[in-house]
Amino acid sequence: MLASEGPNELPADRKRGLRQILGEVLREPMLALLLAGGLIYLALGDLHEALLLIVFAGFSIVVTTLQEARSERALAALRDLGSPRALVIRDGERIRIAGRDVVRGDLVVLNEGDRVPADGRLLRCDGLTADEALLTGESVPVAKSATTPGEGVTPRPGGDGLPFVWSGTLVVRGSGIALITATGPRSEMGRIGLALHALEPEVPRLKLQTQRLVFWFGALGASACVLAILLYGFLRGSWLDAALAGIALGMSMLPEEFPVVLTVFMAMGAMRLSRVNVLTRRAAAIETLGSATTLCTDKTGTLTENRMQVAELRLPDGRRLTFPGGPLLEEDFRLLARFGILASAEQPVDPMEVAFHELTGMDGGSGLLDHRPDGWSLKRHYPLNPSLLAMSHAWRGNEDEGHVIASKGAPEAIGELCGLPDEDMARMRAQADAMAENGLRVLGVAEARWNGGDLPPDQRHFEFRFLGLAGLADPLRASVPDAVRQCREAGIRIVMITGDYPPTARAIADQAGIEAGEVLSGEDLGTMSDADLAARIGSVNVFARIMPEQKLRLVEALKASGEIVAMTGDGVNDAPSLKSAHIGIAMGKRGTDVAREAASIVLLDDDFGSIVTGIRVGRRIHDNLRKALAFIVAVHIPIAALALLPLFTGMPLLLAPIHIAFIEMIIDPVCSLAFEAEKEESRLMQRPPRLPDAPLFSRWMVGWSAMQGIVAALAIGSVTLYGWLGGMEADRVRTIAFLSLVLGVLGLVLVNRSYSASVVRAVLRPNLPLAVVAGVVFAILAVSQVAAPVAELFRFAPASGSDLALVAATGLASLVLLEMVKPLWRKRLFEGET
Length: 834
Prior knowledge:
eight-stranded mixed beta sheet
């Protein structure tokens, strides 16, 4: 069997070596632009700019390569989880073997604490319960039985009383023997692994859009270079000078800041998110998160705390006590809670038994809820069995008091033990159904006394008295309702996809503020065609009893409808949908390695509220990134104009390498650090997500950038021509031209700092990187007017008071003009419409 079906593990992934990963990274257009720009500057002798670009390229290559290498470990983590050690019965002997050596037909012995090595059917079961949360998302373990499954029963994870066990799940109580029916890729875990292996991660929209930007601006720069060479060559006859002028113009128009900005923005965004316990595994996902239109969330552990809590106690006469609340003051409620504790393990592992023990001490200090009264000892445990879903503990105090029996279990089973008349049984069932409709898991509790000799072999021999019902729930996280509200205000639809039961899912959705409406079950989904699902995917917000492949199908359907999908999850069953979604968000504390490796973002604190923080940061990054790109495009227009002006007027060249280097000293930190540090726009989380097909740099943004650049170019050109035609010497013309250019650059910064605030507020709003850059620039320019060596370096002549007044007035006029025009563009710029 091992030879024919292979080992009990997932097939090895086609792992990419470091060389292959590095080759793929180097083919990225933005990195290619960084390296090409660095090499060109190196050829032109500009060592400073060349080293800057190459260092940024190296940084991005290292970070991207490390992230890709980490992603290669996803299936390795899945294989480790799916192949534990196993105790098998072969030839009548029990031997322990490696999980990978388990084959179909093996008999596997399962005990408390064991990891199930492969899918199987139970032949013997002694109170066995298993935690199947990594496959189903259910918050509590499920009870197993060794019964023969009925006809038409499909072996699937989840559900009480079934005889199936699944690879990778954990036995939390009891023992049993299972006949292995599927191993390796044929197991439930294996099918998830193969689906994960076959999926390709969603290509970040930022990557696709920047590729287009690089292409178009590269084409524009190349065209300008050729045009300048032809014009210079034909007009002045010197083709060598024409080539140098063309290269200089091309470099002045080349937006080499694009990749630097993208690298810095994503790195700083990742750092900011890490401060609020959000780890970014793929940097581009930060910006994509800001554009999410639908957030698909699991229930257990994401919206809830992934623990059980007693939420309600209900007495047979209908009286209710809900939690959290005050102490248990009434004797009947104390008695119900006390026997719920006594019917639980002394050192509980089961989440529901832990919840009962948490009631200890809520009796107002009377001590009646101590988990074991002084002198009492547990004499016998009666486990669950398929024919009676109830368990009992027999306690003994001193010899004269006899035994006290505490029992808890399914309400019908407890009613059977108590011998309730039909009328009382119907009342109890109605109460249990009402509690279940509120999303509670309901247990009945009963007590009995035994004053005879030896304890009977079956718990049915006791005369039980029904004490009431206990409703348990996985409590909602405190931060969830506010986070859901913020998402709804931001136009983000919340969709709950859970493996839990519909009543529980609906109750949690109502508590969280998610519009439940119709709840669609996995069984319903299984009967729907793709066309039917496409027609209903936009109106259903809660999906319950969903299987792993159905999660993936829902994500794919949402993507096909044009949604930008963020998906949260923590289990192995979530990994394929996490990888398929535009943004996969895994839980860091309780999440499996497989889920974390498949996701692009990890919540270190497992807090749903952190997702809202991530969305806010993503939107802020997107806004500031567009501002920076608009500034980059706009600022290259006056630089190019000042480089071209001497070609058409006959004046000497105004910009030397020192001037270009000085301008770049302003542009580089401003467009990367200063714009990244800008505060978020007003009502950032009250506007809807941008359209899924909206480009990063829309035609409205191109028009706005072009207008800014043209206004600045006209202002600078006017000052320059005024000086040249007025008979100023060349160095003095160069001085006022360069001062006008610097002032124009700073003016463009102020115009682009905010699209929702005036320039006055932009000036007053603190921005440390911008203040440092502006201070250094003005200091150097001031020195260049009083220190002869610096003036000689810049080839400046002292500017008169009237020259400085002209420069200031022209710069102020262009700034006021742009501020007057900006409101006309604000709606398109701010909302990113196309």
